[in-house]
Design goal:
Number of domains of chain A: 2
CATH class of the largest domain in chain A: Mainly Beta
Number of domains of chain B: 1
Distance between the termini of chain B: 29 Å
Helix content of chain B: over 70%
Number of helices of chain B: 6
Oligomer: heterodimer
Number of strands of chain A: 7
Radius of gyration of chain A: 25 Å
Largest sheet of chain B: none
Number of strands of chain B: 0
Distance between the termini of chain A: 69 Å
CATH superfamily of the largest domain in chain A: N-utilization substance G protein NusG, insert domain
Structural class of chain B: mainly alpha
Largest interface: A-B, 23 and 26 residues
Largest sheet of chain A: 4 strands, antiparallel
Order of helices and strands of chain B: HHHHHH
CATH architecture of chain B: Orthogonal Bundle
Shape of chain B: globular
């Protein structure tokens, strides 16, 4: 009994089922990450202390008070930027929009970090010494 | 139940357990992924001897295999039992409701799919309990199940055809 003969003897329903499951699973593999809600969050720290933890998918503008004055932070379309800062070199504003990593404003002691919620719960990987 | 049916169930179960044992020795790209070749026996039992035989063969295979591998009352056994029973039931329902609509290949794909989905749901409640992880892994498992299900179905179809040919030849002699 050859393989070809058996393949020719499969019913139409067999083939439709096969193609359907194949396409649904392939579609799922490629697109499930987009369908799932993003779990990223924005952590804003002043002077080393966390002040705000905000979801990255909610647009908003807020300002936090540091030692040198108010820093204004904007969250829009899954990205964060610093729009206004009292510091002299304005490096934090020049950095623009970020979707991961962090913006540091040293003069005003403000740190904005984008990361996964899960990761922030984890402790240090290892401690030596 | 006739004595002949008992012999038949015993023989088919022995085949299934043997295949299951050999299969667990084969190397696999992902640890929990298996070909599920024992399902070939279930499909053959279902198409040649009916639902009752197929279900009994599945139950005997799952219980004896878990006793041999030492997973008997643990979560691995519950996953195996749930998957086996649900996949046999789904194939039985399809044969009952629409006989002839699917060949052994289609039945095997349905069985593999139901087996995987049942195991995924049971694993969610027993082990993982994180819905994102389950959703992420579901399409991968479905793809693998469809491919191995097709392969098993082709094997089942070959065996069934050869068995039927044998039976017809014996009658003519």
């Amino acid at each position: 009994m050859s393989l070809r003969k058996i393949l020719l003897n499969t019913t139409g329903a067999d083939r439709i089922l096969f193609l359907l499951l194949l396409s649904v699973s392939l579609f799922g593999i490629f697109f499930i990450k987009d369908i799932m809600p993003q779990s990223k969050s924005v952590l804003i720290e002043v002077n080393g202390k966390p002040v705000y933890i905000l979801p990255l998918d909610k647009n908003r503008i807020l300002s936090v008070e540091g030692p040198a004055g108010n820093t204004t932070i904007e969250i829009k379309d899954h990205a964060v930027r610093v729009t206004d800062s009292p510091c002299s070199n304005k490096l934090c504003i020049k950095q623009g929009w970020i979707q991961s990593g962090s913006i540091v404003c040293l003069p005003n002691r403000v740190v904005v970090t984008v990361g996964n919620k899960d990761r922030q719960k984890d402790g240090p990987d290892a401690i030596t010494g | 139940m006739q004595l002949r049916d008992k012999y038949r169930i015993a023989l088919l179960s022995a085949f299934a357990i043997g295949i299951h044992g050999i299969e667990s020795l084969l190397p696999s790209p992902i640890p929990w992924m298996r070909l599920g070749l024992a399902n070939v026996i279930t499909v053959i039992a279902l198409l040649l001897y009916g639902f009752r035989t197929a279900m009994l063969v599945t139950l005997v295979r799952v219980i004896i295999s878990s006793l041999i591998t030492g997973t008997f009352p643990g979560p691995a056994f519950i996953l195996s039992l749930g998957g086996g029973v649900l996949s046999t039931m789904s194939m039985g329902f399809v044969v009952l409701l629409a006989p002839g609509l699917f060949s052994a290949v289609g039945l095997s794909i349905i069985g593999a799919f139901m087996h995987n989905m049942t195991q995924l749901i049971l694993a969610y409640f027993l082990i993982i309990q994180r819905i994102e992880a389950v959703l992420l892994i579901a399409p991968v498992i479905t793809l693998a199940g469809t491919l191995t299900g097709t392969l098993n179905g082709l094997v089942s179809e070959t065996v069934i055809r050869n068995l039927k040919k044998d039976i017809i030849e014996k009658k003519h002699k």
